[in-house]
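As the next step, I selected for study one protein, both as residues and as discrete backbone shape codes, as given directly below:
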Amino acid sequence: MRAKRAKQQQQTNGNGDFPRNRIYEVAAEVFHRKGYDNTSMSDVARAAGLTKAGLYHHVASKESLLYTILDSGLDLTESYVVKPVEEIADPVQRLKTMIDLHLQLVLEERNLEVTGLLHECKTLSPADRTRINRRKKEYVKMTSKLIADVVKKQNIKDVNPKLAAFALLGMLNWTYQWYKATGPSRRDEIVATFQQIFLQGILGANQRRA
């Protein structure tokens, strides 16, 4: 992927002739690697093979870059995870599919970087932070509803769907901290393991209570 980035950088003229989406991809990688606060617009321009003026031709500020990266990441999550899950009738299969699709999305290299930036929304303006946080809360609410449907269908006691949703999303999103595409764990193995851990934990609640 880095070789591809280098090739694309060589094709730019240093100013305006550059795919805007590539700027967001490069910025996400630099923010993730250096940390948002430690990254300057000069760093992003250099990584993209642009002049600083060329970068400002496309984006207004570092904050606007971050907002667009986060907002686009949430758009992708909605189209790749939320909409397909809505088409599934069985509650257990819905939850199982959500875990599968969410992890598959997070484990893509460019999405690992976006996931790692979600906590940086605190640096946005109040209005932009409110918009991003509202979308994040909607996803938590959706996840909580998936779990609540499983709890209801299986007549499970003593499981708080909202707390379970926070636990599940924390487990899924934290993979960006340790997952390596070249590491020993395959994506399908990670998905199957996470599904087993969470679903057995939920479905086994009644047995533990008895």
Notes: Residues 7 and 121 are 31 Å apart (CA to CA). The two ends are 52 Å apart (CA to CA). Residues 1-14 have pLDDT under 50 and may be disordered.
